[in-house]
């Protein structure tokens, strides 16, 4: 979403993580997405790094300024730390031995409650406009919801549910989430966005 907002183009290669192409793991052995190879040869393989790189090139809505706010830094740190740790164990509990899925779900809820409280009475976390923080944490909150949609939707966190719905229904999100054909060696180049 930051690539679209900053009007930065890149070559897009749609992959399935269970069948990673060698060219991807050669660039980034950790084998997760995103992976962005810059013209300089530097590889960015963390979402926040890609967001910052794109917005440093062009930041029409001053998202980087909002990202540097102490509260944004704190929430992003919690998202990328405890929340993501527990989300992985909740969503992918079969990958871990002796995991109590419900305990990890309950730990995730602590962050959801905190976001819910931050959203009172605002549409987005900082104010009435989407910010770096919203875009940085929304994909993980979305994954948490997807793990058990019916259960999530029954929870009392109305502010988070409205916030997530607004972001998921936005043109920015839907442009980002367009499905592309799986990439294979020798395919024609696809430029995103």
TrEMBL record:
GO cellular component: cytoplasm
GST N-terminal domain span: 17-54
A Pfam family hit: GST_C
Glutathione S-transferase C-terminal domain residues: 93-170
InterPro entries named among the record's database cross-references: Glutathione-S-Trfase_C_sf, Glutathione_S-Trfase_N, GST_C, GST_Omega/HSP26, Thioredoxin-like_sf
PANTHER family registered for this protein in UniProt: GLUTATHIONE S-TRANSFERASE OMEGA, PTHR43968
Designated name of the protein: GST N-terminal domain-containing protein
Organism: marine metagenome
